[in-house]
Automatic annotation (TrEMBL):
Lineage: Bacteria, Pseudomonadati, Bacteroidota, Chitinophagia, Chitinophagales
SUPFAM superfamilies: PLP-dependent transferases
Family matches, as InterPro entries: 4pyrrol_synth_GluAld_NH2Trfase, Aminotrans_3, Aminotrans_3_PPA_site, PyrdxlP-dep_Trfase, PyrdxlP-dep_Trfase_major, PyrdxlP-dep_Trfase_small
Oligomer and partners: Homodimer.
The name this protein goes by in its record: Glutamate-1-semialdehyde 2,1-aminomutase
Primary enzyme class: isomerase
Organism: Deminuibacter soli
Gene: hemL
UniProt similarity note: Belongs to the class-III pyridoxal-phosphate-dependent aminotransferase family. HemL subfamily.
Cofactor: pyridoxal 5'-phosphate
Length: 428
């Protein structure tokens, strides 16, 4: 069933560390051999052995309308004929920035980069440059890319491998990273009192997706906003996952809380390597060449990347019903999973927000990293493989949110619910 994947994985390990170019793909946390993909269309991925999967990772978000969306593919093909890079400005970059500003609240100016990592790293540097302060607060289990400052209690990828401290990140760097539990406003308040006038930024996933899906408690984001206002701290919403996914205006719009800076990735690139950071004019003006906070990128605003993102975002902007449909599909899946899980009799928690959802095999509410990490991870591993065998591709880690795409049909969702029922019967 997986013979070609197995031999490809063996070959890959000869030339690529661990056989993969991003750690979570290696299936280490769920065991077994990673499945090598050959192609995908709509809601389905096909591996090198010809197996078909209903996809619940959507390339970790970008494929929100399904794989190989015809408009996106056509736009990329046409654009490629006019050269794939200039290293000089293009009109398309203006159109992209204008489109982002028309969709996202509080984005007066926006700078394109090539990944979510770059977006977060640059936003933090900017917040530091703007405030003249060094420290910042992040939340345990939130992931903001792999820049040094953020690799402290950094969620999914690291949790998957049980990595606590990361060799290569100096003490000097991590000393400026302050952490507290997600949803713990009091701890944030305390940190700001212990470090007066030293905290440049608070960065948060407004809906967390890197410890499974975890919702902000009522008042949490509003509380962060008011602490930042009081103490002159820059509030950064990391919307790399939530941006253009929860709503056209992301979590800011959906949850009605304003950030000072916002970072984007994933959906914004339509499957190409794209990130962006933007926000309030007074802060964004500190970026070079306007200001002295340096940030640059040879392939930033790359035409192929821009046209893919621009085409996808335009679809989302012009069809706001997509978000209602996605939410309905996710709610339908939630209800179905809930029924079969209840019938199976094992404790579980389903967290859902918009088109993000995750199943935690837990007997307690999952509201932060600690409560996520104390769920039954072993059971998730078995569930993952039982589902994979039945043609359902879930994230290969208990610490990742599932992402629905709008190509999924009710039938796909029913198949998924039925597969869960059968999987639970098999593994329990
Ligand atoms: C994926 C992710 C990142 C990093 O983005 P890359 O494009 O992988 O560098 C940052 N923040 C969040 C919330 C993410 O989910």
């Amino acid at each position: 069933m997986y013979n070609n994947s197995k031999s490809l994985f063996e070959r890959a390990q000869q030339s690529i560390p661990g056989g993969v170019n991003s750690p979570v793909r290696a299936f280490k946390s769920v065991g077994g051999t990673p499945v090598f993909m050959k192609k995908a269309k709509g809601a389905y991925m096909f591996d090198e052995d010809g197996n078909r999967y209903i996809d619940y990772i959507a390339s970790w978000g970008p494929m929100i309308l399904g794989h190989a969306h015809p408009a996106v593919v056509k736009a990329i093909q046409e654009k490629a004929a006019d050269s794939t890079s200039f290293g000089a400005p293009t009109e398309l970059e203006i159109e992209m920035a204008e489109l982002i500003r028309s969709m996202a609240p509080n984005v007066d100016l926006v700078r394109m980069v090539s990944s979510g990592t770059e977006a977060c790293m640059s936003a933090l540097r900017l917040a530091r440059g703007y405030t003249g302060r060094n420290k910042f607060i992040k939340f345990e289990g939130c992931y903001h890319g792999h820049a040094d400052s953020f690799l402290v209690k950094a969620g999914s990828g690291l949790a998957t491998f049980n990595i606590q401290t990361v060799p290569g990140v100096t003490g000097g760097v991590s000393n400026d990273t302050l952490t507290c539990a997600y949803n713990d406003l009091q701890a944030v308040e305390q940190l700001t009192e212990e470090h007066p006038d030293q905290i440049a930024a608070i960065i948060v996933e407004p809906v967390a997706g890197n410890m499974g899906c975890i919702l902000p408690a009522p008042g949490f984001l509003e509380g962060l906003r008011s602490i930042c206002d009081k103490k002159g701290i820059v509030l950064i919403f990391d919307e790399v996952m939530t941006g253009f996914r929860l709503a056209a205006g992301g979590a800011q719009q959906k949850l009605n809380v304003d950030a000072d800076l916002v970072t984007y990735g994933k959906v914004i690139g339509g499957g190409m390597p794209v990130g962006a950071f933007g926000g309030k004019r007074a802060i964004m003006e500190k970026i070079a060449p306007l200001g002295s906070v340096y940030q640059a990128g040879t392939l930033s605003g790359n035409p192929i990347a821009m046209i893919a993102g621009y085409t996808l975002l335009t679809e989302l902007k012009n069809n706001p019903g997509i978000y209602t449909e996605l939410e309905q599909k996710t709610a339908y899946l939630h209800t179905g999973l809930q029924q079969v899980l209840e019938a199976a009799g094992k404790p579980f928690v389903i967290n859902r927000f918009g088109s993000m959802i995750s199943v935690h095999f837990s007997d307690h509410a999952v509201t932060d990293f600690t409560t996520a990490a104390t769920a039954d991870i072993e059971l998730f591993k078995k569930y993952f493989h039982a589902m994979l065998k039945r043609g359902i591709y879930l994230p290969p880690s208990a610490f990742e949110s599932w992402f629905l795409n709008n190509a999924l049909t009710t039938e796909d969702l029913d198949v998924t619910i039925k597969a869960t029922k059968e999987s639970l019967e098999e593994i329990l």
